[in-house]
Amino acid sequence: MKQEYKLKMLESEIRKVMSEALMAMKDAYIESMKSLITISRVEISKDKRYADIFVSVLGNDEKRKEVLDYFEEKKGYFRSYVAKNIRMYIAPEIRFKEDRGIEATVRIGQLLDSIKENQKSSDNK
Length: 125
Prior knowledge:
- This protein has a three-stranded mixed β-sheet, sandwiched between helices.
- The protein has one domain: K homology (KH) domain (GMP Synthetase, Chain A, domain 3), CATH 3.30.300.20.
- By secondary structure, the chain is an alpha+beta fold.
- The protein has helices at about 1-25, 30, 60-75, 75-85, 100-125, and strands at about 35-45, 50-55, 95-100.
- α1 packs across α4 (about 75-85).
């Protein structure tokens, strides 16, 4: 139980540092998109060698793929940023994965709103 707690704390810290790294980037490509990108969660392997970084990007599928490809190219920057800001024996290898959770939440909200509108219009008739 204690080991799992430490792992969760480390995941939380890496998520925070990854968000800082994203904001600290001085790249023209990513500068205009920072507000559309969220580091939603981090999962670390039990041996702490791998960190799966779940990234949520608001936009179309093409934009999401573009951002994930860009992050894959900049993987070294993120890993070195984590190594400099968190005391670990070995900085984990970073793997970026798409997280569609926020988008699904927005979609569900839209569906619920449309159902409410349909019910109101049918009640008024």
